[in-house]
DNA sequence: ACTAAAAATACAATCGATTGCATCAAACCA
DNA sequence: TGGTTTGATGCAATCGATTGTATTTTTAGT
């Protein structure tokens, strides 16, 4: 009773026909007459046949499956990216295998090997923080498996990259604060060795410049952008000689830490100080007041990544044109920054 | 150049030996001498060989892979359950395929079919809200693939179930509030047709009873437990004739809505009203004050589910003993409920 | 040195589905 | 009616790895 999986041969035997005909019928080939097709389909249902994709994929040398690796599936940005990928993949008849590297290079390497061993048709990945080079992609590259790297800048020559325009996001955020009437805007910046934070700083500066507000070095406060950093920075803000009326934080978490401190000190948000964060983390909408922020368009980035991958799936590897796509983030205006209207 | 995947036959040919020896060497069988083993391994590395798991799994009739289906990977409870599963699986040399049903029965059915077609060795699932019966599991059952259902009660006779003890969680929460000195505790309850909310209500009652506090029907406020429900309920709380000094909410989101309203009305938390939520959602720790809550022990439930699955994987299906495991949740005491010490 | 036992390797079938080619039957036309 | 075209089905190789059995080589024992 144990080993009773039904194969096409069982169906063939039951109907006294050849298994190749069964295979063709199940794949709806027009080389099988309608009559026998129906007979086969009925019998397949009756026996509870389920195609063995291992065998099928092995033979076809194609799995119709793509692998997705992200640092953490629980992060909002990543889970929405995954949803975007799944949507696109589903439309094209592909399955998606989701994996998380937990920001560990070793796990990332293992996952890539496993996906490769399972012969996925392509991989979409946001690399871990520990990933400094891309040597572990070489195997895939060699056998022509296309790869799309999203969320994190990759400087290899022949890579497909889908990135967020941090500059524009920061520009929009700062510009919005200015349009709300802010004159003295502090920027919470992150580790300067990371591209994203440098670009967000640039966007902040550009917006000031557009409105002919002089840039003041002392209004840029650096930290690792944890929640407690936000609290400490808010304390600093209140001690600044300029009377600060706006904060653009390079992430949500620090903005929230600051918001809580400021509220405790009786500062009214947004009336006294308007705040905009960055990332649209799960908490930002729940805060009181809800935090304005920059949405990283995870869903859109996921869809674009998947589309880019599919473009390459149908092209011989030698003929593939690597491409970099820059996604514009969108400003989510909520209560924490509305001084007007 | 395109189709250049290396197989064991390529290695065999390069070394003028038989591919079966190569296979055995790569599997570290003791039927191959150390000398040839080394030769083979070296050549495999040199050629960049990567095992084709499709072929291997097909032949062995075993994939060393388990499938996990959850409604949403982004929910904290599920992502921690997945982490628990992955940890356990990794130790046993299994891979994990993660899927999300998005609470849709149709997607769940598709996922189960795909996993079955890919011949996963077992499945761990938290069923979608739309799932009212388990007919779509029949195929798996027929070919002996073990299934573990977690998080949601399942009344089928031969099912493995890993559940949270909602009663105990609610009891602990309420008991904690009483021990903090609360006398008049409101309970925010959810849809009464759901088991979980009925059990949480029971736990609340039991804790009152233990401390000989009379149960008052009017202190149980029903809603769908959305954030805005929390706000409305808090309003009600303030209008109650009893002077309420504690709230046990059957989830975090409603607790947070209530907290924000109460703070706005000048109520001090926890001094005037202590609050405990349920679920340990991502937001609870970030609130001000941080919200005490019941942690659903996702990680532990994941580990237990995986262990239960593995127990069954190594046993013939006829000999399997279905088992139900009840997990005790743990109380996370944070600021929102500390009236003492 | 010769045989028995042990170790190492080779052979060939197998897992389940797919697919190019061959075969057979039915239909068509002159 | 006989030959040809079209349509439907069968045959057999194949994908890449595994594994029971057979064969060869090595080692050991007397």
From TrEMBL, chains A, B:
Pfam families: LacI (PF00356), Peripla_BP_1 (PF00532). Keywords: DNA-binding, Transcription, Transcription regulation. It comes from the Bacteria. SUPFAM superfamilies: lambda repressor-like DNA-binding domains, Periplasmic binding protein-like I. InterPro entries: HTH_LacI, Lambda_DNA-bd_dom_sf, Peripla_BP/Lac1_sug-bd_dom, Peripla_BP_I. Coiled coil: none annotated. CDD domains: HTH_LacI (cd01392), PBP1_LacI_sugar_binding-like (cd06267). GO terms for molecular function: DNA-binding transcription factor activity; transcription cis-regulatory region binding. Residues 6-60 form the HTH lacI-type domain. The keyword Transcription applies. PANTHER family: HTH-TYPE TRANSCRIPTIONAL REGULATOR GALS, LACI-RELATED TRANSCRIPTIONAL REPRESSOR. This is LacI family transcriptional regulator. It comes from Maribacter vaceletii. The lineage of its organism: Bacteria, Pseudomonadati, Bacteroidota, Flavobacteriia, Flavobacteriales.
């Amino acid at each position: 009773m144990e080993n009773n999986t039904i194969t096409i041969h069982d169906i063939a035997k039951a109907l006294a026909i050849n298994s190749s005909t069964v295979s063709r019928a199940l794949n709806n080939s027009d080389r099988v007459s309608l009559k026998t097709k129906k007979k086969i389909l009925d019998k397949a249902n009756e026996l509870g046949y389920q195609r063995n994709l291992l065998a099928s994929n092995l033979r076809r040398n194609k799995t119709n499956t793509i692998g997705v690796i992200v640092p953490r599936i629980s992060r909002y940005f990543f889970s929405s990216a995954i949803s975007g990928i799944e949507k696109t993949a589903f439309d094209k008849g592909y399955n998606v295998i989701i994996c998380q590297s937990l920001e560990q290079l070793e796990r990332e390497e293992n996952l890539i090997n496993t996906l490769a061993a399972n012969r996925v048709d392509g991989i979409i990945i946001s690399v871990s923080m520990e990933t400094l080079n891309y040597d572990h992609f070489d195997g895939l590259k060699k056998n022509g498996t296309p790869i799309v790297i999203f969320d994190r800048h990759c400087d290899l020559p022949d890579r497909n990259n889908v990135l967020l325009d941090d500059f524009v996001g920061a520009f929009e955020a700062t510009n919005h604060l200015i349009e709300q009437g802010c004159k003295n805007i502090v920027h919470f910046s992150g580790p300067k060795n990371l591209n994203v934070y440098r670009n967000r700083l640039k966007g902040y500066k550009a917006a000031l410049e557009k409105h002919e507000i002089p840039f003041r070095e002392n209004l840029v406060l650096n930290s690792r952008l944890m929640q407690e950093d936000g609290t400490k920075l808010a304390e600093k803000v209140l001690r600044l000689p300029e009377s600060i009326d706006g904060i653009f934080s390079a992430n949500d978490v620090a903005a929230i830490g600051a918001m809580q401190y400021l509220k405790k000190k009786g500062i009214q948000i947004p009336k006294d100080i308007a705040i905009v964060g960055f990332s649209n983390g799960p908490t930002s909408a729940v805060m009181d007041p809800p935090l304005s922020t920059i949405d990283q368009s995870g869903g859109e980035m996921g869809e674009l990544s998947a589309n880019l991958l599919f473009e390459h799936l149908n092209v011989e590897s030698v003929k593939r044109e690597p491409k970099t796509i820059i996604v514009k983030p969108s400003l989510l205006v909520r209560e924490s920054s509305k001084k007007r209207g």
